[in-house]
């Protein structure tokens, strides 16, 4: 049986060129970048070059990139770091009800520390209202955190418009771009973004490494204490091999962005065309025209999400019910609840397919026809 992996939004396979680039930094170039001898300088040079290359991809300055252990740490550092450094200016934060748990749970923590958080609702397409955001902004708002593209539905938020709105307000603007980076061109200056989170393992890089972009003028308090790495903003010996892997993954993602976008969109269209042709009862969750190219979230009416996932797995197809961080949990998707309400059938019957490296048009067709068979079987029951 051929196994088909359609869960790239959870994690992606490491690109062979990334593995190849990392190996020397686990065998020959092993020095601590903080050491002043030859071995340390070798590693330091590699980290500096990676920082410079990555900064260029988003229009940032080299010193505005902080290497982290991934997206969760980047989100935590952005929110807690800014909140604690700016609490004398205000204690109000704005985010959305559909953020990744790395942001939502951090906001819950900050509420316990005396901050007030406004969670913006979304419409049935999964988008916030700019009017709601404008109304929520207050003189004591110090931070607005809105994700670039949703990890469960792929829906894109109006990042450029939010950036323009906040140009006239002292609040800093953070975006979790973990799913969008590498598939959507991002220029932090054109979009007026102050902080941006990225993770390597979503773009065919290694797990356990990512970065946080922090604009030069942003006041941020570190939450790891130790050495003076990352300009005293993130203590701990740098993950040199991981950073090199991230750099290579970034390079490949930038070079292949256009072709990947076209390919993944064609996968979405083909899958939906087969569902249509086979006459099953389904609906796309989110805005097909304004979403990440690689994420497709579909409600199959009359089915149960757990039964669907088990049957797909038995058929060799790896898909998801949404965020990998809640896999195995019986809790409904907070994203779909925010979009459709807690009583909607979509919450109990929605599957996320996400495409990436190694997927072919033939695999997508096989997965689509297999999904149709499963849906018809479950609905008959």
Notable characteristics:
three-stranded antiparallel β-sheet, cysteine desulfurase, 14% strand, 381 residues, seven-stranded mixed β-sheet, alpha/beta, Aspartate Aminotransferase, domain 2, 2 iron, 2 sulfur cluster binding, Aspartate Aminotransferase, domain 1, 2 domains, 13 helices
Morphology call: globular
Spatial arrangement of strands, main beta sheet: 2-8-7-6-5-3-4
Give the number of domains.
2
SS-based structural class? alpha/beta
In oligomeric terms, what are we looking at? single chain
Rounded radius of gyration (Å): 21 Å
- Beta content comes to 5-15%
Distance between the termini: 26 Å
Mean pLDDT: 96
Tally the beta strands. Answer: 12
Briefly note the CATH topology name of the largest domain.
Aspartate Aminotransferase, domain 2
CATH superfamily of the largest domain, please?
A: Type I PLP-dependent aspartate aminotransferase-like (Major domain)
Helix content: 40-55%
CATH class of the largest domain: Alpha Beta
Q: Unreliable stretches, pLDDT < 50, 5 or more residues?
A: none
CATH architectural arrangement of the largest domain: 3-Layer(aba) Sandwich
Largest sheet: 7 strands, mixed
Cofactor: pyridoxal 5'-phosphate
EC number: 2.8.1.7
Keywords: 2Fe-2S, Iron, Iron-sulfur, Metal-binding, Pyridoxal phosphate, Transferase
Protein name: cysteine desulfurase
